[in-house]
Amino acid sequence: MKRTLILLMALVLGLCFSATAVFAGGGGPPKNMIKGFILKVNPENRTILFEKDATKEKLTLVLPEDQDLESIPFGKKVLVSLVTKDHEITNKIKHISVMFIDMPPSKIVALLMVGLIGGLLSGFIGSGGAFVLTPSMMSLGAPGAVAVASNMCHKFPKAMVGAYKRWKYGQVDIKLGLVMASSAIIGVQIGIKIQKYILDHWGNAGSNLYVSVMFVIVLVLVGGYVFYDAYKLAKGGKEAETTKLAQALQKINLPPMIHFKQANIRISAWFTLPVGVATGMLAATIAVGGFIGVPGLIYVLGASAIVASATELVIAFVMGLWGSIQWGLSGLIDIRLTLLILAASLFGVQLGALGTTYVKDYVIKVVMGAVMLIVSVSRGAKIPEYLADLGLRAPLSPEARAMYEAISFWALIAALGTAGIVITFFMVKGMLAARAEEHKKEAVSHG
Amino acid sequence: MSAKLTSFDRAMMAITYAEAGEHETAKEIVSSERKEKIMKPTHNKGALALKTLVFGAASLSLYYIVFTHVDWITTEFTKGGWHAAYPVCTALIFSFVHGAFASNFLSLIGLEAKGH
């Protein structure tokens, strides 16, 4: 009964955060994006008659110069991004994309595969999936905003199922998760403000560069440290110890002090705040807050890797729910994409969660560090392109551009593959060891 | 010893042994019953298979309904505003039904957490 109440409380709190965040007006798609149907094309002055789907308002919009009139999609819902000039939205079209991509079996299989491994990673290290799901959906043809929205809508139910499973295994600290989530929402607001500032001053290319540079810096530094720590633990065969930083922070008696029972930490709320805010900021910047949330919980607050990765799922649930409502209000969620990914990721997340019960604490760090480092290569390969877009270096040749694209794509695949292989290896090893131990016990009790 | 013996059978058997002076055997019978209770899994295979089947069928039906009405659903779900409730609630319902199916299925094929 008590547990059900806690879960209910978590849900209500989550909804409260969501409502606050929605009305505070953060997140969501850019304002220069409209969706609806193209009713008519006027080839003489290259304009279209466009009807917004929600309000049925009709607009006359000017086509971009390079738009082929033959390829204009009629009868399909489209997403139109408009050119902005001096912070004002004009009636000139920048880009038209079909909202709902066709779904041949090959795309369905691709989505299921990525969903399965993304879920496995999420259940195991508490985050991940988004960094590969969103680009995958985009490479299958979904518009960026729809890919982000559909991924967000799959993230919160997946995180909920994962959090529930790991809570059943006694690994989740709900209180810590909720405290972190509330500060993470503040972080998201700050992250969005920074993004908007950069977008206003340096445009899309500047924003892309900022996101990529942040991604690479954070992932290389934090991922490198996590990996080094895991390597030390694996080599020495020792159990993980609380870091000196966490020990020092736990000793400072700065009210209000909070006791997190499951994580076995007593720490001032003032120290949980920066970790939460950083998680939110990173979530708003690179869409994977857990890459700083989990290491923050481990090294700054002093939680074990198992509890940290499990608690991160509570944060992912709250933030995912908030994000989904935001994107849902703008009507950009393609539920087909969401449900197809969920079909496999709900298996993956539970497999990953039960996998954590068979492995030592450091294995979670190995997987997390490795994934972060490989993914950083993927983003790093995008930087030359963005620098060229901003005019900060010579333009790239088409061959060079294609090469960087290939590096970026294959690094993502490598990250997923590595995660899948490492998790499966340690899980099977742990299961076999547990079974052998059980047989041994049985033999002793019978003999 | 047959696993089908009831607690009453075991108790009677233990009493018989105890009365016959075989105290150790009597103790063993009682303790083996306790051990079996601790070792016994919380669910049996039949119930698990039934649950997997029910949730599996429910999940499949939900997927069938969505993908046979995909045009209507994608249009309605993306109207924005209060229509946001549609995708969010759908994702929640699917996660409960399909999540329960996945959980039961994994248990059925023997993939369970350590100590569970």
Total number of distinct structural domains of chain A: 2
Kindly name the structural category of chain B.
mainly alpha
- Could you estimate the helical fraction of the residues of chain A in percent? 55-70%
| Average pLDDT, all residues of chain B | 81
Beta-strand residue fraction of chain A: 5-15%
Which quaternary structure do these chains form? heterodimer
Morphology call of chain A = globular
User: What number of structural domains do the residues of chain B give?
Assistant: 2
* Average pLDDT taken over every residue of chain A: 82
Uncertain runs of chain A with pLDDT below 50, 5 residues or more?
15-27
Low-confidence stretches of chain B: 35-41
The H/E string of chain B reads HHHHH
Instruction: Please give the count of helices of chain A.
Output: 13
Helix and strand sequence of chain A: HEEEEEHHHHHEEHHHHHHH
Q: What is the radius of gyration of chain A?
A: 23 Å
Using brief descriptors, characterize the structure shown.
heterodimer, A: 447 residues, alpha+beta, OB fold (Dihydrolipoamide Acetyltransferase, E2P), 2 domains, 5-stranded antiparallel sheet, two-stranded antiparallel sheet, 13 helices, 7 strands, 68% helix, 11% strand, B: 116 residues, mainly alpha, 5 helices
What features would you describe in this structure?
The complex is a heterodimer of chains A (447) and B (116). Chain A is α+β, with helices and mostly antiparallel strands and 447 residues long. In chain A, 68% of the residues lie in helices and 11% in strands. Chain A has a five-stranded antiparallel sheet with strand order 3-2-1-4-5, with no helix packed on it. In chain A, strands 6-7 form a two-stranded antiparallel sheet. In chain A, helix 2 runs parallel beside helix 10 (335-355) and helix 5 (174-236) crosses helix 9 (305-329). The two termini of chain A are 42 Å apart. Chain B contains five helices and no strands. In chain B, helix 1 packs antiparallel against helix 2 (23-39). The longest helix of chain B has 24 residues, at 45-68. In chain B, 20% of the residues are buried. Classes of the chains: A alpha+beta (447), B mainly alpha (116). The A-B interface holds A 35, 53-54, 77, 99-100, 153-154, 156-158, 160-161, 165, 168-169, 321, 324-325, 327-336, 338-339, 342-343, 346-347, 350-351, 353-354, 357-358, 430, 434, 445 and B 35, 63, 66-67, 70, 73-75, 77-81, 83-88, 90-92, 94-95, 98-99, 102-103, 105-106, 111-116.
